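pasting for ref
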Amino acid sequence: MSKQKMSAEDKKMVNGLFWNSFLLEASYNYERQQALGFSVGMWPAIKRFYKTKEGQAEALKRHMAIFNTTPHMVSVISGVTAAMEKEASENKDFDKDIINNVKVGLMGPLAGIGDSLFWGVWRVVAAGLAIGLANAGNVLAPLIFLLAFNIPNYLCRYYGAFLGYSLGAKYIEKIYSNGMMEILTKAAGIVGLIMVGAMTSKTVLFTTILDFTMKGKSVMDVQSSLDSIFIGIVPLLLTFGCFKLLKKKVNIIVLIFGIVALGIILSVLGIC
């Protein structure tokens, strides 16, 4: 396949995506996580492809959906998303829902790669190198650690943005010509739902210590009984309950404090 050629304007925009990627966690929160940082990070592409305030506002709002990935890999997603935003701005028939579906579908796998590569492996290697130098009395050991860890990180971010945009532009054109866009939309939606489900099972935790006894012997371990019905049933019900309350316009701050209060009460009662 031929390499996707970029114009000078394309390169300038992708450079902007790279620099803006450092804002990803500037406003991290527990409602939308990195969404605001990602939305701001997409501004160079949004400003270029949408010429009206209404179009720009719509695109910024679209990227306020919940988002969370390893910072080192975000520019790949930004590049792919920029290519889709370009197509959406030029093609009125483009289904804009696919943009967030693809984003959510990419953030989980790339987070797994980034966490394993940078946090799990390369950080340990860089730290081992710096510790060896520190033990030898080298005062540059902290600087060596920062350089050894961050240079590959920045290179990944920089070239990841160009790779994401090139691949995104190329494959979107190919998918449209093959009539595969509808299939991709459905597949991306399914992957997105799977990722949301996986995040729920990993981040929403509830374990009860409630145990019914008779004559000093345990007759029913409530947690084991719940797990025998459906592993993680209580966290799932709690998630659905929160989602229902959010749909009813309950304030997210009230909901957070309510969950904290519920946890304290259940702990005092010896339930969890």
